Amino acid sequence: MRFSLWQSFKIGMTIVGTTIGAGFASGREIWEFFGSYGETSHYNIILSMCVFFFATIILLTISWQKKTNHYSEVLEQIMGPYLTRLFDWIVLFFLLSTTVVMIAGSGAAFVQWKGDDSFILGCIIMMIAVFVVLLFDLKGLMSMNILIIPLLIIILLIVCVWFLQVHPGDYDMARTNSHLPAWPSAISYAAFNIISLLAVLSTMGSQIQHHLEIWLAAAFSMVCLGGIAILYNYSLLKIEHLMSQYEIPLFALVEDYSPFWVSLITCVLWFAIYTTAISNVYGLVFRLNSLVSWPRWMIGLISLLVLAPLSQFGFTNLVQFLYPLYGVINLFILASILLYPFSQSHHSTQKK
Q1: Where are the membrane-spanning stretches (predicted)?
Q2: Residue 290 gets which letter from DSSP?
Q3: Percent helix, percent strand, percent coil in the chain, to nearest 5
Q4: What is the model's pLDDT at position 176?
Q5: For residue 336, is it within any domain?
Q6: Rounded distance, CA 325 to CA 339, Å?
Q7: Around 332, how many Cα atoms within 13 Å sit in the side-chain half-sphere?
């Protein structure tokens, strides 16, 4: 088995692309899960990234060793056949519904950019862009992330570094710290993104040639995510008094509210939605492909056409209804993943 650093980089970028959705890129997730808890929130980002790291290692290792093709096969390894029957449908519904959310999110981004009449145009462009990548299968997914994610990372870094240079002082002294323990929020954030990671990483086994690629991909992706999140969080803590005024905190970091910055940030948010949408659709397509023997691109096309009308419910309405629904489910799946190595050790001891 030959180790490939480039393969680790590609898988790492795919992990980052799956996790950096519009919530992360806009700063809203960073603030709600971390920054709102005050100065110690940096430590909670590190805790969340550690949980992410081990969950990613476990998922990639299962996919590599068991040669899994979709998330249901990984679920069977971590939960057993009985629970898998239930959670298989739950994850499928999650991928379907979040794909609708991403399509609606594209429409919302176009409304922000071009006006109220462009919602449907934004939805259509998202569907076409996702379908084009589907034509190239897993290579298309990984190549897309290699092209887009470094650019998104660079833009977010530029915005945060530029803001910190302009505002080098201490935190806003008017800020009040939360008296609630912050570590549960760190675990919740890891759980919040776990189903999308499960859906994508369960298909990656065929792309891995050496176990070191797994560790390097996980480490690289967590350093990227954690580094950006800490820098982003540090910036947002300085403008806590403005958080209630901005639905998209990223705009609060840009004093020059010029058309250039509006267009640039809108593009960042759209591509963040795009990378998450592709990851969810890939997980969906690979699962459905085990049920019907159609070409994957055809499954993806039909899925997008069926889901598109549901996007008319609106981005905000869909998020408010669907995301709390998955909270407990995501925590259970995350716990099952993290406990998997211990259950394997127990089974090995019993066999001896």
Answers
A1: 43-65, 86-113, 119-138, 145-166, 186-202, 214-234, 260-285, 297-315, 321-342
A2: T
A3: 80, 0, 20
A4: 46
A5: yes
A6: 23
A7: 13
User: For the chain, first and last CA: distance in Å?
Assistant: 29
Query: What residue type is 243 in one-letter code?
Result: M
Residue with tokens 């060793």: 65
Kind and range of the H or E run holding 33 = helix 28-33
Nearest to 20 by CA among 214, 168, 225, 208: 225
Tell me how far apart the alpha carbons of residues 245 and 242 are, in angstroms, rounded to a whole number: 5
pLDDT of residue 19: 92
CB 75 within 8 A of CB 91: yes
Distance CA 289, CA 178 (A): 47
Flag whether 84 is in a domain: yes
Contact 155, 264 (CB under 8 A): yes
Per-residue confidence (pLDDT) for residue 174, from 0 to 100: 44
Q: What are the residue ranges in the chain where pLDDT is below 50? A: 173-174, 176
> What does the block give as tokens for 281?
């659709």
Annotate 280-299 with b (16+ C-beta within 10 A) or e (fewer): bbbbbbbbbbeeeeeebbeb
User: Would residue 351 count as lying in a domain?
Assistant: no
Q: What CATH code is carried by the domain that includes residue 26?
A: 1.10.4160.10
Give the pair of three-digit tokens for residue 115.
Answer: 């006006």
Q: What residue type is assigned to position 39 of the chain?
A: E
CA–CA separation, 60 and 51 (whole Å):
14
Cα–Cα distance measured from residue 318 to residue 310, given in angstroms and rounded to the nearest whole number? 9
Residue 347: what pLDDT? Answer: 54
The candidate with the shortest Cα–Cα distance to 114, out of 269, 310, 266, is 266
8 Å CB contact between 261 and 163: no
pLDDT at 324: 63
For residue 39 the two structure tokens come to 């100065």
pTM: 0.89
CA 16, 133, 137, 279 dihedral sign is positive
Count of structural domains, the chain: 1
Cα atoms found within 13 Å of the Cα of residue 229, Cβ hemisphere only: 32
The pair of three-digit structure tokens given for residue 292, joined into one six-digit string: 């019907």
Domain region containing 203: 5-346
